[in-house]
Design a protein that fits this description.
The complex is a heterodimer of chains A (138) and B (98).
Chain A lengths: L2 E2 H4 L14 E5 L4 E6 L7 E2 L2 E2 L1 H22 L7 E11 L8 E12 L2 E10 L2 E12 L1
Antiparallel strand pairs in A: 1-2, 2-3, 3-7, 4-5, 6-9, 7-8, 8-9
Chain B lengths: L2 H15 L2 H16 L12 H5 L3 H15 L5 H5 L4 H12 L2
Helix pairs in contact in B: 2-4
Classes of the chains: A alpha+beta (138), B mainly alpha (98).
């Protein structure tokens, strides 16, 4: 476990109730992994299901927290990450509330301060959503 | 890698190197399709940024497209020297050793 929610907010611009990552489990330049428990009271739960927007937000926050963590680990000033664009979204299923999802993000390309990543959320190994994102680090 | 596999790769590289014109035509194809413009606008003297109407995020798409279609990695530094498609073809030519 690299970061818990109280530390994650040092690396993302979001605040409660819109923090959608609980733990940063691992982070290397090649791969990030986090988890998140979906409370029934989560703002993005609708009719019992955690919505697509929440899954996307979870991927983006996993990414931003990881870049910030890695910057700090390298001795640099952590920068904040923002979504630049989202593409190739495939939604397989929205998870119910009261479960813990896992998220894996893989950076694929970098051009200056813009990163292209692929993100995937899982529930018990089952793929929920996959997408590409451009994350701007500023 | 077996000898036959090495020969296959060598033949592929040889053919690829002999076809810069094909690389240019392929570039016009994937760029016109991805950026939804007339391929006839993609000429060696045309301004790349203006023709494709690129913003900073689009450049990342361009990097991905070039890598996927031409197997060439382009960095941010590389783009500093690219104004026209001709500049781009020169860079690809250099990177592929054509």
């Amino acid at each position: 476990m690299l970061l818990v929610k109280d530390n994650i907010i040092d690396f993302i611009p979001h605040r409660a109730p819109f923090v959608m990552v609980d733990h940063l489990i691992s982070a290397t330049r090649e791969r990030f992994e986090s988890d998140f428990y979906i409370e029934e009271s989560n703002e993005l739960v609708f009719q019992g299901l955690f919505q697509e927007g929440g899954l996307l937000e979870n991927i983006a926050q996993t990414c931003a927290a990881s870049f910030g963590y890695l910057d700090q680990a390298d001795g640099s000033e952590p920068k904040i990450g923002y979504i630049g664009a989202i593409s190739r979204v495939v939604l397989h299923a929205c998870p119910p509330h009261s479960v813990r999802i896992n998220t894996i993000v893989t950076p694929t390309h970098q051009l200056g301060n813009i990163f292209m990543v692929t993100g995937q959320n899982f529930l018990d190994g089952r793929l929920l959503l996959e997408c590409e994102m451009k994350i701007v680090i500023a | 890698m077996s000898v036959s596999e090495i020969n296959f790769v060598a033949m592929y590289v040889k053919d690829f190197k002999m076809n810069l014109e094909e690389v240019i035509e392929q570039t016009r194809d994937f760029l016109s399709e991805e950026f939804e413009i007339d391929r006839d606008l993609i000429l060696p003297g045309s301004n790349l940024k203006d023709t494709l109407d690129l913003d900073s995020l689009d450049y990342v798409d361009l990097v991905v497209l070039i890598e996927e279609n031409l197997n060439v990695k382009i960095s941010g530094e590389d783009f500093k020297g690219i104004v026209t498609f001709g500049d781009f073809y020169n860079l690809v030519q250099k990177k592929l050793g054509l």
